[in-house]
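Next comes a concrete protein, fold included:
___
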Amino acid sequence: MNTFHVYRGFRHRIARFGDFIKVSIRTVKPSSNLKKGKKKKAVFVRSLFGKLKKDGSFAKFNNNVCILLKKRMAPFGKEIEGPIFYGLKKKNLLLHFLVELNFD
């Protein structure tokens, strides 16, 4: 995926945890419903660039990951793999995802 817009306000060019971004699809699996070159909205959930927590620990991941969205807060896929940054719970993003994915 290629990110070309960050919904954070004027002059923000770097996405952080929980930011909404606009992406264009670059590589697609043959069995996928997505088309190459389509534009989608996504939520940024993991980053190579770390974040310092209030308790002094440092959260950093091995790759950049975002969750594609259908409409509003509905995730495009059926499951979310791997760890998700704790800050998404504060923004109530994780709650919306769990409701859409039918988790209890």
In short: The first strand starts at residue 2 and ends at 6. The chain is about 10% helix and 25% strand. The chain has a mean pLDDT of 78.
